């Protein structure tokens, strides 16, 4: 943790040179009393390790604990990557105990972000595959950079794995059954333009995404909280309750699926290709 370094070291080491063990993993700022910005900061690609997921959850709770704050913008410190999704190394020849803990943390991350009383705006200024898309879909509103080379979607099948049932449900809820059926089967990654067409994102911008995200956060923050949160609970409550009831069953599915030798070989091959690239 950055806070474990001496004050002098904290001032003199460039943030770029810090290892992930020394980083805070996320940064929180408050551009105005009603708005928080939660910045993902786990180089190189903001992948979601067990510790990263736990840190995001802790940060959302910290922001929520201030009753004045009404909206939270989720952004990345990386100018080209929102999040590369789950940290694939967590699924590569893991111990069963770590793998199960990892998955419980991912479930908690989804449940916390999807159900927060805060209005959540995803400021997607870069690639957002798989778990990155999960983070974005868990927010209330998604704004993406129009840069044509960026990609967003659920590409799990390309790694030889499947999205868990609750991520599939979230995808169906967001873009509709037929598009989700095709997108999941093909592990499709959409360009920003395609993502807007299927309503995977709500808005595309050419200007810095964060500027528009902060404007939208202001709009969402101006809606009276009680009615806004009641509407959110009505729309999202069933999916949250369903996973709450099935959490341990889902951990079992995940563990058994990932520990299969064939799946392990697939993950190994995918990681090798990523590194070679
Ligand atoms: C029937 C019952 C079923 C039950 C099943 C239950 C559950 C299954 C769970 C499934 C859920 C999965 C969700 C996921 O999120 S899986 C992760 C998917 N993510 C990806 O495929 C993204 C992979 N990354 C990329 O495509 C690119 O890195 C990029 C994000 C487009 C950025 O490209 P670029 O800027 O060129 O960076 P590099 O590719 O060079 O990467 C730099 C560095 O980072 C490493 N890396 C990249 N992504 C990840 C990752 N997700 N996890 C860990 N590490 C990653 C990459 O290997 C490079 O490392 P080196 O510098 O060491 O080579």
UniProtKB/TrEMBL annotation:
Location in or out of the cell: Mitochondrion matrix
Q: Which PANTHER family match?
A: ENOYL-COA DELTA ISOMERASE 1, MITOCHONDRIAL, ENOYL-COA HYDRATASE-RELATED
Q: What does this protein do?
A: Key enzyme of fatty acid beta-oxidation. Able to isomerize both 3-cis (3Z) and 3-trans (3E) double bonds into the 2-trans (2E) form in a range of enoyl-CoA species, with a preference for (3Z)-enoyl-CoAs over (3E)-enoyl-CoAs. The catalytic efficiency of this enzyme is not affected by the fatty acyl chain length.
Which chemical reaction does it catalyze? (3Z)-decenoyl-CoA = (2E)-decenoyl-CoA; (3Z)-dodecenoyl-CoA = (2E)-dodecenoyl-CoA; (2E)-tetradecenoyl-CoA = (3Z)-tetradecenoyl-CoA; (3Z)-octenoyl-CoA = (2E)-octenoyl-CoA
Q: In which pathway does it act?
A: Lipid metabolism; fatty acid beta-oxidation
Q: Which GO terms describe its biological process?
A: fatty acid beta-oxidation
Query: Does the keyword section mention Acetylation?
Result: yes
Q: Which GO terms describe its cellular component?
A: mitochondrial matrix
Q: Does the keyword Transit peptide apply?
A: yes
- Alphabetized InterPro entries for the sequence: ClpP/crotonase-like_dom_sf, Enoyl-CoA_hyd/isom_CS, Enoyl-CoA_hydra/iso
Its family? Belongs to the enoyl-CoA hydratase/isomerase family.
* Protein name as annotated: Enoyl-CoA delta isomerase 1, mitochondrial
One Pfam family recorded for the sequence: ECH_1
The record's listing under Gene3D superfamilies reads: 2-enoyl-CoA Hydratase, Chain A, domain 1, 6.10.250.170
One GO MF annotation is: delta(3)-delta(2)-enoyl-CoA isomerase activity
Record's subunit section:
Homotrimer.
Sorted UniProt keywords: Acetylation, Fatty acid metabolism, Isomerase, Lipid metabolism, Mitochondrion, Transit peptide
């Amino acid at each position: 943790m950055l806070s474990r370094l001496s004050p002098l070291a904290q001032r003199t080491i460039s943030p770029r040179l810090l290892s992930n063990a020394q980083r805070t993993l996320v940064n929180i700022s408050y551009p105005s009393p009603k708005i928080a910005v939660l910045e993902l900061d786990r180089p190189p690609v903001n992948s979601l390790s067990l510790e990263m997921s736990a840190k995001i959850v802790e940060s959302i709770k910290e922001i929520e604990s201030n009753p004045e704050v009404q909206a939270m913008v989720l952004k990345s410190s990386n100018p080209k990557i929102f999040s590369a999704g789950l940290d694939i190394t967590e699924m590569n020849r893991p111990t069963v105990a770590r793998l199960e803990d990892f998955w419980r943390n991912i479930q908690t991350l989804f449940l916390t972000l999807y159900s927060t009383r805060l209005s959540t705006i995803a400021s997607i200024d870069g690639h957002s595959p798989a778990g990155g898309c999960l983070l974005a879909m868990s927010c209330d509103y998604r704004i993406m950079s129009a840069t044509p080379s960026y990609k967003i979607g659920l590409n799990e099948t390309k790694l030889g794995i499947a999205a868990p049932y609750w991520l599939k449900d979230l995808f169906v809820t967001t873009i509709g059954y037929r598009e989700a059926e095709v997108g999941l089967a093909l592990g499709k990654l959409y360009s920003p333009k395609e993502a807007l067409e299927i309503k995977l994102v709500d808005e595309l911008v050419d200007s810095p995404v964060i500027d528009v995200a902060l404007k939208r956060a202001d709009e969402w923050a101006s809606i009276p909280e009680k009615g806004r949160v009641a509407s959110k609970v009505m729309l999202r409550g069933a999916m949250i309750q369903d996973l709450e009831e099935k959490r341990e069953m889902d951990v079992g599915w995940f563990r058994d699926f990932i520990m299969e030798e064939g799946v392990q070989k697939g993950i190994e091959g995918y990681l090798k290709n990523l590194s070679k690239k």
